[in-house]
Amino acid sequence: MQVAYCENCGKHTGHKRELGIMGKVTAIATVGANHMAYTPRCIICGLTTAEAHNINPAVQAAREVQRKENAELAITLLKLPFQMFWWLAKQIGKGMLRIDTAIRARNAPLR
After folding, report:
1. Is a pLDDT exceeding 90 seen at residue 74?
2. Which of 18, 43, 75, 90 is most buried by its number of CB atoms within 10 A?
3. Average pLDDT in the 31-48 region?
4. Is 15 exposed, middle or buried (0-12, 13-18, 19+ CB in 10 A)?
5. What is the pLDDT of residue 72?
6. What is the distance between the alpha carbons of residues 41 and 8, in angstroms, rounded to a whole number?
7. What residue segments make up the domains of the chain, in order of their start?
8. How far apart are CA 111 and CA 102, in angstroms?
9. Which helix (H) or strand (E) element contains residue 5?
10. pLDDT: which is higher, 72 or 52
């Protein structure tokens, strides 16, 4: 397997030749000569490097937009716990949220 840049995936991925049953049969029959005809394919998207060069620009642009949206969502999810902690600290600082009252109410004996 070789590592190469896949323009379709937009990253460096592994590329390998994948032979099916008929490919293996013809490789045996031609003593491996047809193995040169099988170009390596990306292990993620399955396109050859030539196919990735010829992909429709509109499709590639849509995939890039999807990647950016996924990155923004990941950043938002990473920031969320910090924002929640900041909001909680702000509420405690204002006196709107009293932790000691909540603890006393929880530890109070039942009547």
Report:
1. yes
2. 43
3. 70
4. buried
5. 93
6. 11
7. 1-55, 57-111
8. 18
9. strand 2-6
10. 72
